Each structure stands twice: as C-alpha cells, then as structure tokens.
Automatic annotation (TrEMBL):
Residues 10-132 form the DUF5675 domain. This is DUF5675 domain-containing protein. It comes from Gallaecimonas xiamenensis 3-C-1. It holds the Pfam family DUF5675. InterPro entries: DUF5675. The lineage of its organism: Bacteria, Pseudomonadati, Pseudomonadota, Gammaproteobacteria, Enterobacterales. It comes from the Bacteria.
C-alpha cells in the first residue's frame, strides 16, 4: 500500500453505543474528535471499520457531498468494491445512529437528542479535508 507523507492517526475508544476517537496529525496535534458505529465484528453498514492502515482521498458522494473515502484493500475496505466494505467515508454527521460504518468528525464531544455525539461537524470536515489534501494515510488504532 502507498504510504503518503501525510499520516493521521485515529485513536479510538469503544463503547456499546458507539466508537469515539481523536484524529491527530503527524505531530500529535488534534484535528478532530470522531464518532463511529460500535465495533460489531466488521458487519457492513453496522460496524466501525477494523483497526489498521488506510488511504484517505477526497470523494464526491451522491448522498454526502464532498467527503473523504477510506480505502484499505487488505482490510476488506474499498471505495467501490468488490470487497467486504464499500463506501466507508469520513463525512458530516453528529451521532453514531446517523452512520452506516463511516466516520464523522467534530470539533468537540457533546450530546444531541440524548445521544453522545460530535459537534460542529461541517466546519470540522472542511478543516480535515484541507489537512488531507489530495491523499493521506490513516492509521486506526485503539487507545
């Protein structure tokens, strides 16, 4: 797999109601906090993606607009398939219940409609898109 000179690390904590993390750059500076679905054994559309190394690239989703596509063929994650997981994206959302295996960035953690969430997702996604540029490496791991 191609390793970009830009590497971001997503450090996660797992809970039954969602996976919450912190996205940091090469220097350890926090770029965003994140929310994902809980770990459900990599079930498509229900689980967060497995820990490992991925490529991030800008993507124009028909339903989510400009976002980032996550690709890790050796982990079964590609943009268009064939693979176990397709269209795993970093896109705007606030709560795990709004996601189907994607990652939503936010400025800080909070509560939306009595559910743990990330806040200010739109502006934070714009910041993440600018930091990633044309391509970057994403390392996903537990804390």
């Amino acid at each position: 797999m191609f390793m970009s000179s830009k590497t971001f690390t997503l450090r996660r904590r797992y809970f039954e109601h969602g996976t919450f993390g912190e996205l940091v750059d090469n220097s350890g500076n926090r770029l965003a906090v994140t929310v994902e679905c809980p770990w459900l054994n990599n079930q498509p559309g229900k689980s967060c993606i497995p820990e490992g190394t991925y490529t991030l690239a800008p993507h124009n989703s028909p339903s989510k607009g400009i976002c980032l596509a996550i690709s890790g063929p050796s982990l079964g994650v590609t943009v268009n398939g064939p693979s176990l997981r397709t269209h795993c994206l970093i896109h705007v959302a606030n709560k795990a219940s709004e996601l189907e295996g994607c990652i939503a960035p936010g400025e800080r953690f909070g509560v939306v409609s009595n559910e743990w969430a990330v806040l200010n997702s739109r502006n934070t996604l714009d910041k993440v898109l600018a930091a990633v540029g044309l391509e970057a490496t994403l390392v996903v791991r537990g804390q």
